[in-house]
Amino acid sequence: EPEVTQTPSHQVTQMGQEVILRCVPISNHLYFYWYRQILGQKVEFLVSFYNNEISEKSEIFDDQFSVERPDGSNFTLKIRSTKLEDSAMYFCASRPDRYSYEQYFGPGTRLTVT
Amino acid sequence: DAKTTQPNSMESNEEEPVHLPCNHSTISGTDYIHWYRQLPSQGPEYVIHGLTSNVNNRMASLAIAEDRKSSTLILHRATLRDAAVYYCILNFGNEKLTFGTGTRLTIIP
User: Fold this and answer.
1) What does the pLDDT look like over A59-91, one tens digit per residue?
2) Could you list the mean pLDDT of each consecutive 10-residue stretch along chain A, which spans 114 residues?
3) A34: alpha, beta or left, given left = phi > 0 and alpha = psi -120 to 50?
4) Which residues contact B13 (CB under 8 A, 6 or more apart)?
5) Would you call B32 and A101 a contact, using CB atoms and an 8 Å cutoff?
6) CA end-to-end span of chain B, whole Å?
């Protein structure tokens, strides 16, 4: 069964460094999302992406964050200058099309900012 | 976003049915009712969704009240693998998911 994959599984970085989290959504899916979950807290929406542009973003998704679909398979989340409070699990999700409402999540990348 | 209310935790015996309730009294006419679950140390997983009629799939059943102000996720025969946090989420269907704190389901062997 096709699944969303994410790399790396765990990323450790120093405060102020740039990180890129990578996701390979399910092939032929058209809608892409990033969510994050700080340890012990709720899963929070960050951004949705469709047709090569952001369709919605949350207040968390400030100028330090960006997303890109550099080719036909990858979907990346970049954090330009990481802060301690960016430490969280980051989940990528994809959805087939406008008629299918279920989102398929990846296993997540644990980001630790020291 | 319309709000949902779920019990913080529930327990069930293995191999017995589990009924997970969700109240959503402020649901709008266009809101779909979605259920996701999150197994320990994993990403959320889609379970089922519905609008007005009861729905069945290979994972679970969704029973929706006639006035749509509440719904129940039914796991017909719980296994240890079903231990997870279950989230009831309302949305129009094609946009972001807004997760609450969900119901932590413990399965007793």
Assistant:
1) 999 999 999 998 878 999 999 999 999 999 999
2) 94 98 96 96 96 94 95 93 97 93 96 98
3) beta
4) B78, B107, B108
5) yes
6) 37
Interface test with chain B among A32, A38, A105, A109, by most B beta carbons within 10 Å: A105
pLDDT per residue as tens digits for the range B17-72: 999 999 999 999 889 999 999 999 999 999 999 999 999 999 999 999 999 999 99
- Transcribe B10-71 into DSSP letters: EEEETTS-EEEEEE-TT--TTPEEEEEEE-TTS-EEEEEEESSS-EE-SS-EEEE-TTSSEE
pLDDT mean across residues, chain B: 94
Per-residue tokens: B47: 């379970």
What is the token pair recorded at B27? 């649901």
Could you say which of B42, B49, B101 has the minimum Cβ distance to residue A107?
B42
Please indicate if any CB of chain B lies within 8 Å of the CB of A98.
Answer: yes
Largest Cα span, chain B? 40
Cα–Cα nearest to B73, from B105, B29, B108: B105
d(CA B37, CA B17) in angstroms, rounded, equals: 17
Pair of tokens at residue B10? 């529930």
Please state whether B12 falls in left (phi above 0), alpha (psi between -120 and 50) or beta.
beta
CA gap A70, A48 in Å, rounded: 16
